[in-house]
UniProtKB/TrEMBL annotation:
Protein species of origin: Rubritalea spongiae
Source species taxonomy: Bacteria, Pseudomonadati, Verrucomicrobiota, Verrucomicrobiia, Verrucomicrobiales
Protein name: MurNAc-LAA domain-containing protein
Length: 469
């Protein structure tokens, strides 16, 4: 009896702590989704300095900040920082050996190279934590008949939303929308702009994804979801600019024995800015402030030009969705990427992504009437998922760094014959006659497809066994 009381008191204390934590996150969400300006000052990295000082991402109590590491580290992804493997302590005894093994070997890697880093024992998996030190390891115990714990994460899967509301099928679901790329004056720098011929209006992916995302917010909120946009204008979320990455770029090119010139440095710094630093800034928003149940990454695709100097419009358009997985040999060898991969596995992210992406793909294929895109059968960076022609696992920065289920939408070709015309026409309400067909705007069609897929997924819960196990 006495023991029971202690247990009760303990759970009360835990409940109070959780409640305080929830309140804290509610309060922090009311702050605008921006990064503190003060970090800019700390970002100045003097690359003539050979000191050992290392700048890392710090988790400050009130505001999280993002910093640029002083030096490139060959054992980490670009701009990566050393992970804290002890974060996996929360996942001891949460997953069976069979499930871990299946996800690691069939979804998250494409080949045998995982064997260099993971060794399976009867009751645990031993993970090498440091590429630079063979002896350092982390042991993760599998759940068994005696000990089984629930994994912890800030996101909730579909099955957690038990209450179904007739008019608000997405009630209580916290969704973050990531309008892919930056757009606007950055479209050319980030190579997400298509210009058919001199003088033709440019098609900028970052502008179009923001149009879709803005329309989606209203639509999903009408259905009960609470929705946050990762950006609301065609400007970077990242507080840094290309020049801020010059020191890190120099360190990287030096360590890789690459050609070091003004031009190569500038190019490397620009890439680090828009391709990497930008996503890292968004990841900070997702993981520290918004903590959503899922992130929708909105994109438009483009096809390879036979002759880039003389761009043409392509006939065959397609659609596919990307989930996290298919880490390459080099990516698994990075300590931070290997850590995130394990975190994805033990959090059960894949199972949630598969369920959602399946429903989303059915809906998109029906609305947009686009055939599936096919990666090469021997691809080392893409794995087909759940025998669904539209679903592909790839290790992209956003779906790796956002610590929750993430689905990428990759429909329409910016240089596709049909879509190009629709993109030029822009957004409109109702139907118009375009390319011999009566149809909604390409943006409205996108929004309808995404919305229907989400509603289908969240209203059909419990009726099907989630695949991917
Ligand atoms: Zn894109």
């Amino acid at each position: 009896m006495a023991r029971k009381n202690i247990a009760l008191e303990t759970s009360l204390v835990v409940a109070v702590v959780i409640a305080a934590f929830v309140m804290q996150s509610v309060i922090s969400q009311t702050q605008p989704p921006s990064l503190p300006d003060s970090v800019k000052e700390e970002a100045v990295v003097d690359f003539t300095d050979d000191g050992e000082e290392e700048v890392v991402v710090s988790e400050v109590e009130e505001e999280s900040s993002i910093l640029i590491p002083a030096k490139y580290d060959v054992n980490l992804a670009d701009l990566g920082v050393e992970p804290n493997w002890l974060e996996l302590d929360d996942y001891q005894y949460t997953m069976s050996k069979e499930e871990f093994q299946h996800l690691l070997t069939k979804v998250f890697t494409v080949g045998d190279y995982w064997e260099k880093w993971f060794s399976f024992e009867e009751e645990q998996v031993v993970i090498r934590t440091h590429a630079a030190d063979e002896d350092r390891e982390y042991r993760l115990a599998f759940k068994n008949d005696v000990v089984e714990k629930q994994p912890s994460s800030y996101w909730k899967g579909r099955d957690s939303f038990i209450e179904m509301n007739e008019s608000s099928p997405l009630l209580g679901i916290k969704i973050a929308i990531d309008p892919g790329h930056i757009g606007g004056s950055y479209a050319q720098l980030e190579e997400r702009q298509f210009v058919l011929a001199e003088g033709a209006p440019p098609i900028q992916e970052g502008n179009m994804t923001l149009t879709v995302a803005s329309l989606l917010v209203e639509q999903l909120e009408n259905l009960g979801a609470s929705v946050t946009l990762l950006r609301v204008k065609n400007e970077p979320v990242n507080p840094f600019r290309p020049d801020d990455y010059l020191g890190y770029a120099k360190s990287k090119l030096e360590q890789k024995n690459a050609v070091l010139s003004g031009a190569t440095l500038e190019r490397e710094a620009a890439k680090l800015f828009y391709r990497n630093g930008e996503i890292r800034a968004r990841a900070l928003l997702v993981n520290e402030k918004i903590k959503p149940d899922l992130v929708l990454c909105i994109h438009f695709n483009a096809g390879a030009q036979p002759d880039p100097e003389n761009p043409i419009l392509l006939e065959d358009e397609h659609f596919h969705m990307i989930l996290n997985g298919a880490y390459t040999e080099g990516e698994v060898a990075h300590d931070d990427e290997r850590f995130k991969m394990v975190l994805k596995i033990v959090q059960g992210v894949h199972q949630e992504e598969v369920g959602l992406a399946k429903a989303a793909a059915v809906s998109f294929a029906a609305e947009a009437e686009l055939p599936p895109y096919q990666y090469s059968a021997n691809s080392s960076r893409a794995v087909n998922v759940a025998d669904n022609p539209y679903l592909w696992a790839r290790n992209l920065l956003a779906n790796r760094l956002y610590d929750c289920p993430v689905v990428f939408y990759e429909p329409y070709l910016m240089n596709g014959k049909d879509s190009y015309t629709r993109m030029q026409v822009g957004d409109y309400s109702g139907l118009r006659y375009i390319n011999q067909r009566l149809r909604p705007s390409i943006y409205q069609e996108y929004v309808t497809a995404v919305t229907k897929g989400l509603v289908d997924y969240y209203t059909s819960k419990g009726s099907e066994e989630l695949e991917g196990k």
